[in-house]
Amino acid sequence: MTFRQHMRQRTVSTLPELTGRPASDIYAVTFRIDSVDQDPRFPYLALGCTTEDEPARLLAQPDAPDPWEARWHYAYFPPSGLEGIRVLGHHTEHDAHGAALHRREAEADGLWYEDDAPDHVQDERGALLDARFRELCVDLARLLHTRGDLVRVLGRPVPVLLYDMFDPEAMFALTRSANPPGPVADFLAGDEPPA
Fold first, then answer.
1. Which of 41, 44, 108, 145 is surrounded by the fewest CB atoms within 10 Å?
2. What is residue 30's three-state secondary structure?
């Protein structure tokens, strides 16, 4: 099994875990792209969801945030959307098999490095590992749409929001790339320049 196959399998098998509450309350699936100790050799995906009750609660407060922010910005996500409900990838505590597969493939591709490698080697290989993992996360989200997994589990298409904790500005580009236009239109409205 490849790391990509493992991530695909784990992502699909995690989806039913999102529905601890009514599936109709879930308005987005979240992919938080992160890495252990900010080290690109150990990338992982925290898969979660956002539900209707959280923006409703925020908007009912006297100092309510902007409605778009309350609904779509990761700073306002509940723990299920920010921390996720399952961690997948190169995280030995949460996904030992994924960690072993990822390291084996990184070594085979000449991208793995040790802590004592020269800085330029760490920077170059780290950037490549990071880019490959982000591309994988975009592909995983696309597959959830094209293979009908979201509709099967949630009863309807919902956007998959991708946000990289080390590159918050990439949120719109990643999410745009990962979703068909319909489900993600409301989210992408936040990327439009003010009139």
1. 108
2. strand
Handedness of CA 183, 187, 189, 193 (dihedral sign): negative
pTM of the predicted protein model: 0.94
Residue 164: beta bridge partners? 33, 167
Return the closest-CA partner of residue 98 out of 138, 166, 40, 45.
45
Q: Are 159 and 188 in contact (CB under 8 A)?
A: no
Check: CB of residue 104 under 8 Å from CB of residue 95. Answer: no
Q: What are the beta bridge partners of residue 29? A: 49, 160
* Rounded mean pLDDT, 76-92: 93
Q: Which of 135, 148, 150, 179 is nearest to 14 (CA)?
A: 150
In the chain the first and final C-alpha atoms are separated, in Å, by 50
Any idea what DSSP says for residue 95? B
Residues above pLDDT 70, as percent of the chain: 96
Spans of all domains in the chain: 3-190
Q: At what angle do helices 96-108 and 3-14 cross, to 10 degrees?
A: 150
DSSP H helical ranges for the chain:
3-14, 53-59, 67-72, 79-82, 96-108, 119-146, 149-154, 171-178, 181-188
